[in-house]
Amino acid sequence: MADVFSPDQVEKFRAIFEQFDKNGDGDISAKELKGALKQLGQDTDTKTCKRMIKTYDKNRTKRMEFKEFLDMMANVFQYHLSHPEGKTSNGADIAQNKKLEDLFDSLDVDESGFIDEEEIIKLTEKLGEKMSIEEVRELIGQVDKDGDGRVNKDEFKRLMSAK
Question: Is 11 left (phi over 0), alpha (psi -120 to 50) or beta?
């Protein structure tokens, strides 16, 4: 997704990334992200920062590398292009979005930022259904746009909002 930016934009994002990476180790920790967001006027707790990182942490290091940072920025830009006033079309859309996020969070039992095979299997068992691993993988494959074998929050919201 990060390939949507021009080389000039990538360099500007690299400069921002380097400012966030306070210790210069090449990635952003939850603590560094929290500090950067605070400087931008967003007082966010550490747990939220960890979830943000988990959403884009493809290699599961619990830290955000530059490519992952670019993916996050691409999503931010995509959102703002589709919602130019910084909001959805009406209050009902905002309420629906919040409900979907809450539902996702309740299904994401391990708080990884993803719904994975194990969580789906456990959920279906609680509902009295039994799905094979192949069925679960097929289900995930239908919504897994980034191909990581898990369902992230955006993929879940797209699925649940499909008409």
Answer: alpha
Angle, nearest 10°, between helix axes 7-20 and 30-39?
100
CA–CA dist 63, 137 (Å, integer): 27
What does the block give as tokens for 33? Answer: 């992200």
Of the candidates 20, 115, 122, 114, which has an alpha carbon nearest to the alpha carbon of residue 64?
20
pTM greater than 0.85 (yes/no)? no
Instruction: For residues 77 and 144, give the distance between their C-alpha atoms in angstroms, rounded to a whole number.
Output: 20
| Predicted confidence (pLDDT) per residue in 38-57, tens digit | 776 777 888 888 988 988 88
What is the rounded distance in angstroms from the CA atom of residue 22 to the CA atom of residue 77?
Answer: 24
Query: Which H helix or E strand runs over 67?
Result: helix 66-82
Separation of alpha carbons 57 and 63, rounded Å: 7
Tokens standing for residue 48:
């939220």
pLDDT single digits (tens) 116-141: 999 888 888 877 778 889 988 988 88
Q: At what angle do helices 46-56 and 30-39 cross, to 10 degrees?
A: 110
* Angle (CA) 161 75 11, round 5°: 170
Find how far residue 108's CA is from the centre of its chain. Answer: 12
